Every structure is written in C-alpha cells, then in structure tokens.
Predict the structure.
Amino acid sequence: MEKAALYHFDLTRYAWLRRLLTSRWPQFILRAITLAGFVLVILTGFIGSPVGSRNFAVMFVWIAWWSALKLIMLPFGGRAWCSICPIPMPGEWLQQGWLVKPGGKMFNLGLRWPRRLRNTWLQSAGFAAIGLFSALTLTTPVVTAWIFVGLIVVAVAVSVIFEQRSFCRYLCPMGGFIGLYATMAPLELRPQPGLTPVEKGAAAREWPRGCPWINNPAALKANANCGLCLECLRTESGANMALNVRSFDAELGQPGAFRLDEAFLSLGLLGSVMIYSAVFQGPWGALKNAALNAGSGAWWSFAAFFLLASFGLLPALLAGASALVRRTGNLAQPLQMVFTLFSRALLPLGLLSWIAFTVSFAFGKLAYLWPVLSDPFGWGWNLFGTASVEWQPYLLSATPVIETVLLVTGLIWSGRTILKTAEQLGVRGERRWAAAPVLLFALAGTLTMLWLLIG
Amino acid sequence: MEKLAKILVVVLILLVAAVPLLGQQIIAQPETIELRARMPENGGWSQEFIYGLVNVPIKLRMTSDDVVHSFALAQSSLPSVEIFPGKFSETELVFDQPGEYTFYCTRWCGANHWRMRGTIVIEGPASSDQPTSVPPLFLQLGLDLDAPHFARVIPSNRPESARASERTNALPDGLTDGENIWSKSPEALWKDLKADEDLDDQSVWDMVAWGLNQQGSSGWMGQGRELYTQNCLACHSESGRGDGVMVRDLPPMNHDKMGSEATRPPDFSDPAVLLGASPALLEGKIIRGGMGTGMPYWGNIFTSEQIRSLVLYLYSFQMELEERP
C-alpha cells in the first residue's frame, strides 16, 4: 500500500472533480467541438486550396493536432485524445441512439469482434498504410479529407455490425499508436486499490455496458486497452474506479506480458519514425520524390523498403539480439517471450523518437498555422487579421539541443527498462552484461535518429 | 437533455458547413480568379482558358502546386509575376481590346516548360483605333523556313559594326533600306555590297554588321539577351552551340534527316548557319517554331519588337554588334 500511495494519486478523491468527470456534458461538448473541427477538415480538404500550407486540413491535422498529440496529449495524458475523439460519435449515435444518455440500441447487430483479430495487427497495418502515403497525405489536403471520410465510414460500419467501440479498440490506426505509447503516460483509469471480491464483481456485472472499450473495469491493468471514455466512473459501481496520476514508469516498470502483435507494432513504430525522419528531414530528394509519387515504380521500392525495414529488419535484428541474450544469459524462457519483452522495453525510445521527430518539424512549421486560422480554405480571407503573418521558424537554434536531450532520455529510459527486463528474465549478477546486445540495439536506434534529425 | 445534445451536434455541423458559403458571400471577392501553376507533367495551369470583358479588371490570385513558376502575358511589356509554392501572388489585368491573349510561364519549371501556356479570352466592343495587322515579312516573301540556308562565303575575321560606323559618311544606300536588310541573309547582303563597292572583304562584312545594327530599336541588345536567356538558352545554350541542358542527350542536327528524329538545334557558333539566314527567316522560325523539332512557337508570345531584338541578338553570336548610343 505504501508503494501504491507513492506512485499513484487518485484525482477522483476530490468530489468536485469526480462530479465533473461523471457528468457526460463536459466530455460531450468537447467531442461535439472536435466533431465540428473534423467536418471543417473534410470541407477544407475537398473544396479549399490544394496548397497544403494554405489549407486548414493539412495544417490543422498534421501540424497542430498531430504535433499536440505527440508532444502533449500522449506523453502526459495517454489516451486523452481518444477521450474526446469524434470519430466514433456518428457510429455510436447510430448504434445506440444516444449521445449523452447511457444505454439504448438502435442499429446494431451487436456481433463480437472476431477472436483472431483481437490484437493490434490490423492497427499496425493501418498505421503502415498511412505511413506509405505519408508524403502525399501530409501535403495534399484532399487526401487528408478522404482519409477522414474513410475513417468515419469504417467507424460507422463497424459500429453497426460489431459491439461497442470495436473500431477504437481493434481497428483505428491511430488507436494502436496511442495505446502502445500510453503505457508510459502518467494518467490511468484503474480500479481502486484493495477492492473486495464483491466490489470487483459489481463492476464485472456492469460489463460491458460500463466499458464501451469492452474491458472489465475491475480487471483493468493496461492503458493500451482503456480509452479514457470515463464511462466506468459513471456506473453504479463507479466509486470503485479512480483516475490516477502516476509516475511515467509506473506501468512499464512493472513486470508485464507483451504479445507478439504488440512487439511488432512497437518495432514497426520505431522503424516508421526513422523512415519519416529520413523522408521529411533528410537531404535525399530522390527519397522524397519516391515517397510522394504514390503508384510509381520508385514509390513501390520505397513501400517495400518501408515495410521490410519497419516490420522485417528491425524485428529480425532485435530477435537476433534477444537470441544472444538468451544464450549468453542461459535463459530458459522461449525466444518469443524474450523478444516481446525486450520490444516492450524499447517503447520509451520509440515514444521519445516520435517526440524528437515532431520537434524537428512542428516548431519550424508552426508559423504556417496563423494564416490558415484566418483563411482556412486558402481563399484570401482574413478572419482574425493573421492571414499575412509571414512564416518564420520557432526555436530554430534550440531544436537540435531539444532533440538530442529527448533521444538521450529515450535511450536512458529504454536502457533502464532493458536491464530491468533482463533482470526479470533471470539475467542477474555477473551475467548482467548478457543484456548488452539489446542495449546496443537501442544505442544504434538512438544514433540513427540523431544522425537523421541532426546530422 | 439528450434532445438538446443532438440539436447541438447538428447545429454545430451545419454552422461549419455554412462557413464556406457565408464566407464566400461576405468576404471573398467574386472577381478574383485562383490560378494554380503546375509543371506541365502535373497538369500545367489549372485554368487553360480565362474569360473576361473589355476594360473590366481581371484579378488573378496565383500559387504553385510544385516548383517555382512565373506568370507572364504574351506580347506585353507587363513584368512577369513569380509564383512560389505555398504562397499566393496577385496581379490585375485590364484589356482594352477584345481578343485572345496568351499567358505563359517564364521559369524553366521542367522538361515541357514551354507547353505551359493558357489563353485569356476577352469579349466586348473593339475600339476604333485598333491597329491593322500586317503579315510578317517571311510570309510576304514566301520563304521556305525549312530549306537549308548555309552561307558559302565566310568572313575571315569577326565582323564589327563599330569599325564600319567610323566610315558612316561613305556607307552605301543599300544599308539604309531596312526591308532590304531584313529580307536578305548577311551573305547575300555582303555579295550585293561587294558588287557595288570597291572595298576589301572584311570592310564589307563590317558594313553588313553595321546595317544589321541599325535595325534594332533602343535597348534591343538587352531585351534580346534577356529573351534569349529566359526562353532559348535551355536548348540553344549560352554559347549558341545548340547543346543546352534540355537537348544534350540528342544527336547533332542533320539536315538530310530533318524531321525523322529529334536532334539538337543548329549551332549558332558556326558562321555558315547564321550568315546564310536572313533576319526575315529567323523571325519566321521564331514566330512559327521549329516544326517537328520540339522548338515552341513564339508568335503569340513575343511582340514584333521583341522578336526583332531577339533576331538581332542571334547575329551577335557571329558579329560584334553594339547598340546605337
């Protein structure tokens, strides 16, 4: 209990905050606003200027939202964005017929998501697909609009066919990314410590109504599975749930299982950020052209390289490093277990790499946002008097320093977690050096990112 | 409460959807035309035709979807407007005569840059003082632009107009007739003068250079150089050898196989090429373009004066010409 009190602080102990969180209206209003923003993105993408830097769709989604997600919401709030994401809203309305009132059923077959697909493979595939077209998506408003329309259509279709928020849990490409890195967020929704079996049972009885993310709230252990929708707080046994502030390391620092699909997603995301950095920050014009010209021969080569490097080469290298650790450390656990646990230990490096990559372009391009706020369609409007604000990069000289600090922090954090994981696997005492191959893997990843971002 | 939530969502979405409609009505200027520039391989100008009325301003708001382009109005002295990716450039055009006006890109934006052209169609009443057009000289003379025209008589030294200008008091009458000079190749002019004048060969060549020099209006040298640099250099090259960056991979020109394959342009550094071509013939080639050679037509792009300056500038590859003070 002492340890739990040290690392977890229950925010819902404050009555006013619990009231605020249990009321559906604040969250609903935020979601309604983000839905309106979502519609504006689609509109500007389709009928606004095709010049990315002058269009709200590109600037708001890929500069403002995408940066804010990685720099603030994800590292500090975990799945905070999922809490106010508007994508499931239309489908949920159709599915249950309500927006702020619980329960109900309108158009819903209520099927359970296929057992074989209850993992992150589809989310990995979706994120990789977006990555393959990233150069086009991040610069072309109409492509961004089509992606948003596609997300809404798929989310609505899944809501009608399957139960609850199956789309968010198993299909949303961003959901996989956010969920995996939310493991390190200092915010969690968990059952109150020391619940009696009766109290746990009460929560379980309310499942799944009490959790649109199809969890048993009383058994919630991982941020990846919790969308912070806060519905469990609003059930009759909601008092048994708590929204905690915790240390960044609270979940990752504990022994935990990691599935093979999660391991591949972890390494796929690490590989993706390296390729994103090479394409967007590197000096290689041919690579940029290949990434941009979707469908061309060069693009197919780029796509093959992207997939092989992210989901083939990196897993192969880590599997090799894991095999060395297993052999030199005389570990009895199967290789798959060693590999998956080490890929889990690399999550901090992955997250900090994404943050460093975001820093590399977010501050440089932030100034494009001001004209777009006054002229979202790029039609020559000047709603707030900022249409003529000239572009200028922010924090230009500080950016390499910030990136280096972030990447070194990621390396240290991952290094610590690798050593802790090795210890949990049985690599102790004089055999501690056996974890060196995985440490070297993390070091190589960090140096690669430093080279790509700083040169 | 549930009803209120649903109304709120619908109202918010409708409000957002109304933004472009209301904004267009309240804020946007309806006469502004957005013109997007793209490399010809990517679609060229977003509008091939722009329609307007006589004496009604056309406001263009331009941006580039790919590389740097430049908007220019053909046969006009209006300065070109640079178009940068991610930025908007604006210009306003007013036409006092109905007709079709060509606009084009003046930046070498890609391999097919010269195809980047569009038309502004202006309708309305014509003013009475519209000048009547005279057919260019090459049509009046019925010149065959594609016939070989190599000079057989070549000067031993580079002709210089300055040397001849020192003898202006003694210049023959044939050099004061502009149409005579414009219709004859330098070689033909040299032969005429040589038959009439008792001068050494080089002095006659200097006179030919002087005669050509007199055909340009004030500032022709600078104008010709600028036009050549902007529009011809990529193929004809800075030296005039016809080995510019756009044609380096092509074989040299072969008159016996004209039209059978793409070749480099003629070599202006070869005296036989330019001294056998009359100004009228060069003017015709510029107006019409090189049929089947890939050279674009410039007749609807350049003014007569601009073409004249360019023709004279071409002779500067073989002669020392200088602008009149």
